[in-house]
Amino acid sequence: MLHDSFGLHLILLPAVACRIPAHMQSALTNTTTLICAEFTCRCVAVHAREDHLHVLISATTERDITSFVHALLEALCRTVVECGGPFRRFSWDPAVHVTLLPPWHVEILASFVRDQDRYHEHRSLEQELDEVFRPNALGAEEHAHIN
User: pLDDT tens for residues 13-55?
Assistant: First the structure.
């Protein structure tokens, strides 16, 4: 049976007073890849900065995305906490920026995610959200009509 595929892009923010350790890129990518394997998704791109984390996956409609996101957040938090020291109290902000993509946009966004260091040479996280992700976001009124 053929299932529709889609891209799922998450921007995760550390809780107030928390930072993502700069050296964690590889460990966070490995954690994401492991959770994706458990949920039969494909990790397309991960990029960590101290103030946010991009995760881009490819999945099919038969996946339980809510469970996937919860498992991913927990596993990524554990990965950071295991660094010890000032990261023992690490947690994620409860707000997660989510973008659903058609399958033909996944590689386009993957290039953007991989190029985050260059993008942020001249733009802040807020500018990124305002310029790239919020313009097409559902407003509160639109969201209420969907639910």
Answer: 999 989 999 899 999 999 999 999 999 999 999 999 999 999 9
Full-model pTM: 0.84
Q: What's the burial of 29, exposed, middle or buried (CB within 10 Å: 0-12/13-18/19+)?
A: middle
> Which amino acid, residue 59?
A
Tokens of 21: 């350790």
With the CA atoms of 91, 29, 13 and 41 taken in that order, what torsion angle do they form, in degrees rounded to the nearest 10? -100
Residue 48: its H or E element: strand 42-49
Q: How far is CA 59 from CA 6, 67, 104, 138, in A?
A: 6, 13, 13, 22
- Asked whether the beta carbons of 117 and 52 are under 8 A apart, the reply is no
- The amino acid sitting at 55 is V
